[in-house]
Every structure is written in structure tokens, then in C-alpha cells.
């Protein structure tokens, strides 16, 4: 068996208070594919930086096998001193490395190499950093959130590039599908310790739950043992014999074990503050368009979004997703067409750039905008300290400035701000960036329970599949197409995933489809059409809907009669059942009419 490329033993490190790493160990073998899992603040990035030799632990050993080459991808690359992205990428090469590989990677990642590093977007900066990290083809790659700020074509390309690589891999990511595709072992950082599972991420969550269940059982046994020993201490000591002294010592040891036992970190409590329910139709856009400098960003797009819908918007970076959201939510006027929002709309947004956070603010000030210490959340008045505790912030952190927070902690704070505002329309722009997997689970549950409408932009395929029931796909050149279902449903209907926009590299588009570029062939689009039955339903459904509304009004009036339940309980119960059935029929009729109306508009277009 080949010796480990990298070994960490008994590593201890912290930043005051409880150490995030305490007795942590890690061994990386040749061709290993390890995903590093843990809550925000559990020390994942710290451990990766110790492994890369960038920081010295307070205690422990780090051994790199002689001759092993290693490259580390940081979350925030430093471009200081570099005039172009090519110069930055080439600085990662060593004598003997193939300089042409930099050109290859820059081309595949959609960069020219002449970009000014000081003017890069988040996605461009991540792609330049990837080119620098991957170019030397090292023995060991340490990747910290490699998919952050990347669009789906680049993520698909990166998956295949890493899968074909001979390098050993240790990666941190929140992208479940990315982890499932690449990992063959899982290291779970939990309360300072590293536990290894020699299976990929797909097996992790079931294993973690089993470990925590067994741990809780052991904790329960320890508590029972302490209770028994304390009972003996009160009533069973008859003399100061050696046996009793030893037993008393054992009790003190048990108490110390219980005192120092670190329970699993608690879960975030996500509760959204919902505004009064709006009407059935939340947003109606007809033939909206937007161009900049003659380039179409959104062209002739129409959609109707009803209350309770969850709509995902996907596409390559720069395809116009944010522009479309701003038009749909009234933040940007279209050049042509109309957008009508329900008069009762109350909007809450999660900004991916987090521009609304001021570095000098404390966490408490960020929640209240500096106005007092009480906030209203889900109809309940809460002290800001208690609300921040729901998001795993300590009382000490509540008075610290935002500038000291990690990326994941900033993400949690932005969620806390967005969810505290009364809303019936929630807009989430890249909500998964920097969030740990447990927080993502809770965010998914919150979206499922939210009675309002959700519009979100995300490059996380698994997150989209778990949350949305419709996907708007940016096809490029201002074209947007709506598909029913989640991301995987869109791929099935479309026959391919998100492709790169023009100028981002042919191979990226091919990777998103799962094929290499082929000669272009004419594509015939299936034209939407209405059958005779559909047209008849479109004409008759409004009459049916009006009749159902009238029936509901009559039943409500009947149930409002004083004393009906006491005098005629059978009639009352029958009216209740009829009301429930009629309301169900009304919802079905409205949804069918909306489906047919969208089909009609598509056919006429």
C-alpha cells in the first residue's frame, strides 16, 4: 500500500474559547477523493489551510511525503501584483510544468487571459483561481468551495475535469450533486474531531444520523449512571472505606465527563415572517423586453406566477437572470411590455452580493437597522439576541462587527434579515452560497412551508430539484423558456442542461449536455397547440369558476347562521364537507384555466 501523501496528527487550533479543531487527524492517500463535511464554523477551511501549510496549528503534526506537489484553492484569491488573469494563473506553475496548460484552462473556463484582476466578477475570479490551481496537475488538490459563484456549465465542466484528474482530492462544497459525483470518502468535522467514512457523500447523511443516535444513547446511559451514583452518595456511604473513596472518585470523573461532553451543534431555527395573503395571481408579465447598448438581455417574455408557486431561474452567468428578476418584481422598468404585481405584494429579498450589510455594523444593528433591540418575527416580538441565537450566533457575536464574520456566517445573517421582514413574495438570489448542508436542509423546509411565492436564482441542481415547481431557463440572446418541475425535469424536457453563453467556450456547452461538440444540426421546435377540447374548456371554465365562487359564498352564509350547529348538526356537517369539496374544485379549475391560458399565449406567439 502506498504511503499517505499528507498526514495530520492530533491537530488543535482555535480562535479563542472552544477550539474548532481538537485532536483532529487526516490522512490523504494517492488518488483519494475526500469531501470534508461540517457545520459553518466547524473548522473545515482552517483544516484545509493547515493541510496546505498556510497556518501553523497550536498543536499537532503535519507531514507531507517527500516530493509530493500540492495546490490549494482559497475561497478569496489574492490578485495583488498581477496585471492579467494569465499572469496570475502562470504564477502557479513551477519549472517543468506545461505552460500551455494555462492557455487550455483559461479557454475552457471562458477567460481570455487579458482580464484585469481588479475588475473581475465573483465568477470570473473563481475561474481564474481554478486555472492557477489546476494548471500544474499536482499530486494533491485542496479545494475550498470550488463551485461558489460558478454557473452550471462551468460546474459541469469542472466535475468532469476533476473526475479525469490523477490528483488526490480534498474538497469542501455545499453542492450535494457535485459531492456525490466526485467523492469516494467522507471526513466529517464535528466538535473538533474528524470522523472518516470510506464511502462517498451519498452515504454520509444516513451514517451521520446513526452516529448521533448512538451518541445520544450513550449520553443517556451516562446520565443514568451518574444518577445512580449520586443516589449511592446520599444514602449508601456508611464508612470511609477505600472502596467508597474510589467510588466517590469515579463519580467525580463521571461528572467531569458529562460537564466536558460537547453535544452536537444545534440546528438553526428558520421562521419566515409572512404578510397578509395576497390574491391568487401574484405576477403577470406580458411581452417584456430589455436591452443594453443594443444587446438583448430579455426579449418578448411572458409569464403568470400564482400565489404559492416556487420558480427557479437558471442560466449561464451574464445571461440576464438578475435583470429578469428585477423586472418581474418591479425594480426595473422593461423597455417594452407590461408587468403587473398584485397590489398586496410585500417583497423580501436575499442579495447575493450582500451589499446591504455595512462592515462597521454589529450583528444586532444589522437586524434592526440600529433601531432598538426588538424585532417582529412571524407575528411574535423577539429580542434581537434571541433571534440571532436561532441562527447559531452567540451573544458575544451579536455585538461584534460584521467585517469579522466568515462567508457562511454572513450568509446566515442575510437569511436572518430576509426572513424577518413581512412578505408574501420571497426573492432569493444565490441563497446557497457559503451555507452548510444542514442550513440548506432547513432553508428547503422553510421554502416548502412558506405560503407565499418564491422566486430564486441558483446554480445548485440538487437545491433546485428539492425546492421549485417551475424553472425559467435563460437560453441566451434574451430568450427565456419556462419548464414545469425542477432542474432534472427541465433537463428531461429540454434534452440538455444549462449551456454556456456565446464566448464562454464550446466545450463548456458540450459538458453541460454530456457530449463533446458535434456539427450543428437544424432543430425543429415543437409548436404548442390547443385541441378542440382545450378551446372549449377555455370558454367554459370562467363560467364554472364564477359558479363555484357563488356556491362558496352560499355555503359560507349558511355556516354563518347562528345556532345552525346546535339545531341541525347533520346539515352543518354536510355544509362543511360541501364547502371543502367546492373549494378544492375551484383551485383545480383556476389552475386548469391558467395552464390552458399559458398554452394559448404560447400557441399564438
Structure description:
The protein is an alpha/beta fold. It has 3 domains: 6-206, Rossmann fold (3-Layer(aba) Sandwich); 281-346 and 422-513, 3-Layer(aba) Sandwich (Rossmann fold); 532-604, Orthogonal Bundle (Helix Hairpins). The chain has helices at 44-51, 85-90, 100-108, 122-134, 152-164, 176-182, 204-235, 242-260, 321-328, 363-368, 384-390, 395-398, 407-420, 437-449, 461-467, 487-494, 506-513, 532-559, 564-567, 569-604; strands at 6-13, 21-28, 33-37, 59-64, 70-73, 140-144, 168-172, 185-190, 193-197, 281-292, 295-306, 310-314, 336-341, 347-350, 374-377, 380-383, 425-429, 453-457, 470-476, 479-484. The strands form 5 sheets. The chain has a 6-stranded mixed sheet, with helices on both faces. Strands 14-17-18-12-19-20 form a 6-stranded mixed sheet, with helices on both faces. Helix 5 packs across helix 17, helix 7 packs antiparallel against helix 8 (242-260) and helix 18 (532-559) runs antiparallel to helix 20. The chain is globular.
Amino acid at each position: 500500500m502506498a504511503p499517505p501523501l499528507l498526514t495530520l496528527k492530533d491537530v488543535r487550533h482555535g480562535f479563542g474559547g472552544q477550539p474548532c479543531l481538537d485532536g483532529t487527524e487526516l490522512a490523504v492517500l494517492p488518488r483519494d477523493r475526500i469531501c470534508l463535511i461540517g457545520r459553518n464554523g466547524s473548522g473545515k477551511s482552517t483544516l484545509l489551510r493547515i493541510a496546505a501549510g498556510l497556518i501553523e496549528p497550536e498543536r499537532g503534526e503535519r507531514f507531507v511525503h517527500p516530493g509530493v506537489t500540492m495546490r490549494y484553492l482559497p475561497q478569496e484569491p489574492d490578485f495583488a501584483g498581477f496585471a492579467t488573469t494569465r499572469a496570475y494563473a502562470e504564477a502557479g506553475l513551477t519549472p517543468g510544468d506545461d505552460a500551455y496548460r494555462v492557455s487550455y484552462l483559461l479557454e475552457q473556463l471562458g477567460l481570455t487571459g487579458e482580464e484585469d484582476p481588479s475588475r473581475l466578477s465573483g465568477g470570473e475570479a473563481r475561474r481564474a483561481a481554478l486555472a492557477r490551481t489546476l494548471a500544474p496537475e499536482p499530486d494533491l488538490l485542496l479545494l475550498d468551495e470550488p463551485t461558489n459563484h460558478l454557473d452550471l456549465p462551468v460546474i459541469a465542466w469542472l466535475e468532469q475535469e476533476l473526475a479525469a484528474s490523477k490528483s488526490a482530492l480534498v474538497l469542501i462544497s455545499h453542492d450535494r450533486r457535485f459531492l456525490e459525483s466526485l467523492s469516494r470518502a467522507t471526513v466529517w468535522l464535528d466538535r473538533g474531531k474528524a470522523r472518516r467514512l470510506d464511502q462517498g457523500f451519498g452515504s454520509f447523511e444516513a451514517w451521520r444520523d446513526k452516529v448521533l443516535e448512538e451518541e445520544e444513547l450513550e449520553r443517556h446511559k451516562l446520565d443514568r449512571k451518574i444518577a445512580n451514583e449520586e443516589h449511592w452518595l446520599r444514602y449508601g456511604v456508611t464508612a470511609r472505606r477505600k472502596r467508597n473513596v474510589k467510588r466517590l472518585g469515579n463519580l467525580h470523573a463521571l461528572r467531569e465527563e458529562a460537564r466536558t461532553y460537547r453535544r452536537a451543534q444545534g440546528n438553526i431555527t428558520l421562521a419566515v415572517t409572512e404578510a397578509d395573503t395576497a390574491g391568487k395571481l401574484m405576477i403577470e408579465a406580458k411581452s417584456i423586453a430589455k436591452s443594453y447598448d443594443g444587446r438583448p438581455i430579455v426579449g418578448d417574455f411572458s409569464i403568470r406566477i400564482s400565489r404559492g408557486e416556487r420558480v427557479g431561474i437558471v442560466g449561464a452567468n451574464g445571461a440576464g437572470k438578475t435583470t429578469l428578476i428585477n423586472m418581474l418584481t418591479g425594480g426595473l422598468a422593461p423597455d417594452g411590455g407590461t408587468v403587473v404585481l398584485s397590489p398586496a405584494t410585500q417583497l423580501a429579498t436575499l442579495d447575493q452580493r450582500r451589499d446591504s450589510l455595512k462592515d462597521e455594523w454589529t450583528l444586532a444593528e444589522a437586524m434592526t437597522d440600529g433601531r432598538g433591540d426588538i424585532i417582529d418575527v412571524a407575528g411574535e416580538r423577539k429580542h434581537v439576541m434571541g433571534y440571532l441565537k436561532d441562527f447559531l450566533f452567540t451573544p458575544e457575536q451579536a455585538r461584534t462587527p460584521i467585517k469579522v464574520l466568515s462567508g457562511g456566517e454572513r450568509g446566515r445573517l442575510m437569511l436572518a434579515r430576509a426572513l424577518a421582514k413581512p412578505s408574501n413574495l420571497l426573492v432569493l438570489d444565490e441563497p446557497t452560497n457559503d451555507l452548510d448542508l444542514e442550513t440548506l436542509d432547513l432553508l428547503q423546509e422553510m421554502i416548502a412551508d412558506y405560503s407565499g411565492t418564491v422566486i430564486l436564482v441558483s446554480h445548485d441542481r440538487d437545491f433546485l430539484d428539492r425546492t421549485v415547481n417551475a424553472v425559467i431557463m435563460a437560453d441566451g440572446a434574451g430568450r427565456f423558456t419556462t419548464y414545469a418541475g425542477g432542474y432534472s425535469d427541465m433537463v428531461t424536457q429540454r434534452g440538455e442542461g444549462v449551456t454556456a453563453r456565446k464566448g464562454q467556450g464550446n466545450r463548456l456547452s458540450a459538458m453541460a449536455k454530456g457530449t463533446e461538440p458535434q456539427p450543428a444540426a437544424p432543430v425543429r421546435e415543437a409548436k404548442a397547440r390547443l385541441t378542440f377540447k382545450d378551446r372549449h374548456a377555455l370558454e367554459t371554465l370562467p363560467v364554472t369558476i364564477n359558479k363555484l365562487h357563488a356556491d362558496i359564498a352560499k355555503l359560507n352564509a349558511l355556516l354563518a347562521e347562528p345556532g345552525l350547529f346546535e339545531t341541525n348538526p347533520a346539515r352543518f356537517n354536510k355544509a362543511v364537507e360541501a364547502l371543502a369539496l367546492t373549494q378544492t374544485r375551484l383551485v383545480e379549475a383556476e389552475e386548469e384555466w391558467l395552464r390552458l391560458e399559458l398554452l394559448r399565449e404560447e400557441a399564438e406567439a
